[in-house]
Amino acid sequence: MSADEFRRHGHALVDWVADYWESLSRRPVRPAEPPGAVAARLPAAPPEAGDGFAGLLDDLDRVVLPGMTHWQHPGFLAYFPANTSGPSVLGDLVAAGLGVQGMLWATGPACTEVETVMLDWLATLLDLPERFRSTSRGGGVIQDSASSAALVATLAGLHRAGGGRWRTSGVAAGRFTVYTSTQGHSSIEKAARIAGLGDAAVRLVDVDPATLAMRPAALREALAADVAAGARPAVVVATIGTTSTTAVDPLPEIGAICREYGVWLHVDAAYAGAAAVCPELRWSHAGVELADSYCFDPHKWLLTGFDCDAFWVADREELVSALTVMPEYLRNAATEAGAVLDYRDWGVPLGRRFRALKLWFVLRWYGAEGLRAHIRAGVALAQRFASHVAADDRFEIVAPHPFSLVCFRLTAGDAVSQALLERVNADGRFYLTHTRVDGAYVLRMAVGSPRTTESDIDALWSLLSGAATDLLR
Amino acid sequence: MSADEFRRHGHALVDWVADYWESLSRRPVRPAEPPGAVAARLPAAPPEAGDGFAGLLDDLDRVVLPGMTHWQHPGFLAYFPANTSGPSVLGDLVAAGLGVQGMLWATGPACTEVETVMLDWLATLLDLPERFRSTSRGGGVIQDSASSAALVATLAGLHRAGGGRWRTSGVAAGRFTVYTSTQGHSSIEKAARIAGLGDAAVRLVDVDPATLAMRPAALREALAADVAAGARPAVVVATIGTTSTTAVDPLPEIGAICREYGVWLHVDAAYAGAAAVCPELRWSHAGVELADSYCFDPHKWLLTGFDCDAFWVADREELVSALTVMPEYLRNAATEAGAVLDYRDWGVPLGRRFRALKLWFVLRWYGAEGLRAHIRAGVALAQRFASHVAADDRFEIVAPHPFSLVCFRLTAGDAVSQALLERVNADGRFYLTHTRVDGAYVLRMAVGSPRTTESDIDALWSLLSGAATDLLR
C-alpha cells in the first residue's frame, strides 16, 4: 500500500468511523441475527489475488454491522460498558502506525517511558498513594484486562508466600490459598486455576447481606482456619465496585488483616476505580494505601478504548522478581545497568504495544476536569434512573448504587423479572443484563457512554414501566 | 470530541503516520538518548483542563520520536522483526472505532465470527491440517502473543494430564513436567512458572549440534526417565523456527513420541509459521498434523500489526473445558444453547478486541499471492546476505538459515564479534541483535520489513566488512 493509498483509504475510514458513531442512536443496540449469519457472508477461503479493498466500505456495512452488538451505543447499559472516545481511537491509530514493540526499554524507550509517566499521571488523577508511583518503590503498567491483573497479583502473592521457592518449585510445595468475597469476579477463580492452585484453593468469603461487601470478620476466620490447617494464604483480592452490584469491600479492615497475616492484598477496582477521579467518590478508596497491588480499567469508564487495565504495585522489585526470565537473546546494556524498567517482566506476554499513547491523548484532550465531568454525568444518570425505580412500588432496588450501576427487580419475583429483561431487550433501543443477588434474579442498568442522555434514561424507564404493567396484568 | 473534530484530527494523524513511514529511512533506527529523556519531556502531572490537542502533532515529533526504536525501519534487522502494514493499521482503526468487546459471542457476534473465519482462512493459507479448522472439531483464536499461546497450551496439557482433577485440585496432586529443546523460547519456562510448576519442572531437551533441532531420542529418554520416577509429562513444546537460529524440530518423530506417551504437543512456529504460506517452505511443517495445538504470529512476518498470535487447537472442547468459568452475570441464551464459540474460554483475559478485522484487511489487500511474495522477498534478502558472509573467510555462518534469519560471527572469536555488533549498531542505519550458539557469541540478521531492499543488505554487508577490517587490524 503506497503512502498515497494509505492516506486516501485512511481518510475514508476515519470518516466511516465518524459516520458510524453518528448513526448509533438509529441502530438497534443488538443484532437480530442467529449464530452463523456473519460467517455466511464471508467467502470460505482467502482471496488468491489482492483486490485493493474493492468494496471494503460496503463490506463493513454489509458483513460486519448487521452482526454487531454496539458497545458504543447510547442504549448499551449492559455488563459494565466499555466506552472509547475520539482521542483514544486516534491514540491507538498512532500506536498502530508506529508499530513499536516495547517488551524491553531498549526496544522502545518512548513506549516504556510514556507508559510509566501516564501511569503516574493516572495515580495523581485518582489520588493513589505515593508508594504506587514510579518515583517511589512502586510503579504502574498497562495490562490487557483486570483478569490478567488478578493473575499477575496472584503470582506475586505466591512468590511472596513461597518464600523464594515458588519460582523453582511451583505450588506443589505448599497448600496455597486465595481469598475474595462471594461477590468477587470470576477472573480470581480463573487466576487461581491458571496458577495451578485449582478451584478448591479459592475461599469465597461471606458478605454483609445489606451492602454485599466482604465481612472482615469472615475473612479473618477463613485465614485463621486455613493457617491452623497448614495452608499458606497467598493473596486476598478485595473489590471496589463488584461486578454484580458495585459493592465496596472495607479496605481499612481487610488491609489490616492482610498485614497481620503477611498476605498480598490485591484491590480490584476494574470498574469503579475511575470514580476516584472525583474527590467526592474517593471514600470508596479509603484504605487503598494498604494494598500491595491495585488495578482499574480506563477502558471501562474513563473513555479509553479496550484494552487498557492500569495496574500498580507498591514494590516493583517483588513483581519483577516473580516474573523475570532472561534468555541470551534479550540481554542488553540498559537492562544490565539496572537503569530502566522492562515491562515484559510485569506481565504474562513478552511483546507489548504502545497503549500509553491512547491514555496520553485522552488525558490531554479531556483534562482532569473533563474526566470528572464524565464520571459525574454517569452517576447523575444512574441516580435519575434509581429515582424512577424507587418511586414505583412494583419495583425494588436491591443494593446500594453509589456509582453508575443500579440493580433492581420486580417485587413479584424472578420469573417476571426475567421476562421483563427479555421484553426490554427485545425492543432494540436498550441493552441491560442481569445477575443474581442472594439467589434472586436481578436486572442491572449500567451507564457508561458519553452519548447516554437524560431522555434515554427516561425512555428506558417508560419502557420498563409499561412492560411491567403488561407482565403484571 | 465532535464528529467534525474527529474527522479533522483523524485525517491529520493518518497523514502524520504516512509521513512518518516515508521518513523512516532518513532516521537512525535506534535513539541516541539515555534513559529518562522521554519522561523528562512530559509534564509531571496531567492537565487540569483539556487543551484540545494543542500542539499534538508537534509533541509527537518532539516528545515521542526522538525516543523511538523504529521497528518499521528498513534497517531494523533485530530480534524477530514485527512488521505492520497500511491495511493492518486501517483494520485496527476500524476495530478501535467500533469499540466492541467480544468476550462472548453474544457481546459481539461479528467480532467472534469474523475471527473464526479469519483463522480458518489462515489455516487454508498455511495448509494446516483439517482438524484445526472450526468446521472440524478444532478451531483457531487470536492470542496476544506466542507467550500466551504457550501458557494456554500448557494449561490444556495439564488439564489432560491431570485426568480431570487439575481444574479442582491444581498441580499439587502430581509431579507434572514440561519439555522443550535447549533452544525453546523463554516463554515456555515462564508458562511453566505461571502454571505453578516451577522452573524445575521444565526439561530442556538436547539438540543436534549441527541443526540445533531437538533430538527425538533425547526427548524419549527424558520422558521415560520422568515417567519411571513417577512424574506426569503434561506438554511438549516443539519449535518451527527457534528464536536463536530458526532451527526446525523434527515434528514427525516428536509427534509420534507424544502420542505414545499421551502428552499434549504444542508447536510454536511464532516466527517461521508465516513461511508456510509458500508451498516450497512447507517442509518445515511436516508432522504438524500430530500437534494438539499450534501457533504462529502474523504480527511477526505477515504484515499484521502487533498483537496478533494465531493459535489453533485440534479439539476445542478440551481447551474450553480447561479454561471455562461461568458466573451468573455472563450467562446468556446463545451460550446455553451450545450454538456458539465464546472466545473468553480460549485464553486468559475475559475481554477481547476485534483483532480479526486487521487480518481481514491484510488478507484481502495482499491476497495469498501478495503474502507469498513478501515471504519470498525476505528469504531472498537473507540468502543474499548469507552469500556475502559465506564468501568472506573471516566470517562463518553458524546455523542453517532456511527462512530470513542469518546467524554469523567472526571466526576470530567472541570479543571481536561482540565489538563488531556494537560498531555496526552505533552507525545508526541498521539494528542487529545477538545470541549464543553452543556458548559462542553470534550475530543475528533478521529481515522482515517490506521496506528492506537489496541495496540495504549490500550496505549492511559493506559496513560489517569494513568494521571487521578495522577490528581485525
Kindly list the characteristics that best describe this protein.
homodimer; alpha/beta; four-stranded antiparallel β-sheet; 16 helices; 43% helix
What features would you describe in this structure?
- The structure is a homodimer of 473-residue chains.
- By secondary structure, chain A is of the alpha/beta class.
- Chain A contains 16 helices and eleven strands.
- The longest helix of chain A is centred in the last third of the chain and has 35 residues, at 356-390.
- At the A-B interface, α1, α2, α3, α4 and α5 of A face α1, α2, α3, α4 and α5 of B.
At a glance:
Two copies of one chain form a homodimer. By secondary structure, chain A is of the alpha/beta class.
Q: Could you list the spans of chain A in which at least 5 consecutive residues all have pLDDT below 50?
A: none
Report how far the terminal alpha carbons of chain A are from each other.
62 Å
Strand content of chain A: 5-15%
Largest interface: A-B, 150 and 150 residues
Could you outline the blueprint of secondary structure elements for this entry?
The structure is a homodimer of 473-residue chains.
Chain A: H1 3-23, H2 37-40, H3 56-64, H4 86-98, H5 109-126, E1 139-143, H6 146-161, H7 166-169, E2 176-181, H8 186-194, E3 202-205, H9 216-228, E4 232-239, H10 251-261, E5 264-268, E6 293-296, H11 298-301, E7 309-313, H12 316-323, H13 333-336, H14 356-390, E8 395-397, E9 405-410, H15 414-427, E10 433-437, E11 440-446, H16 454-472
Parallel strand pairs in A: 2-3, 2-4, 4-5, 5-6
Antiparallel strand pairs in A: 1-7, 6-7, 8-9, 9-11, 10-11
Helix pairs in contact in A: 4-14, 5-14, 6-8, 6-12, 9-10, 14-16, 15-16
